Amino acid sequence: MTCNRRTVLKAGVAAAIVAAFGSVGPAFAAKPLVIGFSQVGAESEWRTANTVSIKDAAKKEGITLKFADAQQRQENQVKAIRSFIAQRVDIIAFSPVVESGWDTVLREAKAAKIPVILTDRAVNVTDPSLYVTFIGSDFVEEGRLAARWLLERAKKTPDATFNIVELQGTVGSAPAIDRQKGFAEVIAANPKLKVIRSQTGDFTRTKGKEVMEAFLKAEGKKINVLYAHNDDMAIGAIQAIEEAGMKPGKDILVVSIDGVRGAFQAMVAGKMNVTVECNPLFGPQLMQIARDVAANKPVPKRITVQEGVFPAEVAAKEFPNRKY
Ligand code: AHR
């Protein structure tokens, strides 16, 4: 080990402060880790819970979080990432609103030697070394789980046809692409299950309601099932179904994803049939991974979170345990 005069002096001063005050004091404390985080927006109950989880975990860990809300626009996320690069943050983390179009800005982060962690949504890049790791859900599996519930339900009435309308998430986003794929893959096993209309509701209640109104206008009583890529759109659509004089959960089965408290309330009220959990509470895990990355420790390329399926039958019992 090399030890110059300045190091010896610094160590001597620190030792004197410890002797006098019992600690090295703030001037010698390790610099807090700085994370620049670009969030998708505030489009859903899920997103709000995710933001709270990340902010709370950073605070608890003494990590400085520079938080930017992209209002569901990719260009805002690109701007935020460039600003984090200019500010020389230690780590950049972001939940990409859509899958493609990230190569250039991620190359800029790599050139600046700032590691990037993806949260919640994946990116489609030619060079996987442009990000260190991904932490979030398996959206394809969530789509499959929603469809498996419906396949089981269809077994109760083997002669019935199930005309499904699908409310997709944001066009080009990983959850919209994957949840559609997983669902389609599983329902293909039963020709009585057919998606008759599919359109984006952008993951919001307002658009979920609007698009469901249009579905009802076009197809009316032909619709037996609503498959929504998130609970907020399902809740908006439930309102549209009621306004059309039909009973959500009965005349039209409502199958959804996220597991937010609003969905449990809808299930307890008999208006939703099932929600597949998508866990937003990975703030503490993100902070740990960020520390590991900053310390150059090896981390897995993909970290997925634990999730369950909640049918209406268990909603009342589970509701008090829900954390988001
Ligand atoms: O990316 C996760 C999805 O985004 C959640 O299912 C949805 O509610 C959110 O807006």
Description:
The chain has 324 residues and is α/β, with parallel strands linked by helices. It is built from eleven helices and twelve strands. The chain has helices spanning 5-21, 45-61, 74-86, 103-111, 139-155, 174-187, 205-219, 231-243, 261-268, 283-294, 312-318; strands spanning 34-39, 64-69, 91-94, 116-120, 133-136, 162-168, 193-200, 225-228, 253-258, 274-277, 302-304, 309-311. It has a six-stranded parallel sheet with strand order 2-1-3-4-5-11, sandwiched between helices. It has a six-stranded mixed sheet with strand order 7-6-8-9-10-12, sandwiched between helices. Helix 9 (261-268) links the parallel strand 9 and strand 10 (274-277). Helix 3 packs parallel to helix 4. The longest helix has 17 residues, at 5-21. The protein is elongated and about 65 Å long. Mean pLDDT is 93; it is low at 1-27. The structure holds alpha-L-arabinofuranose (AHR).
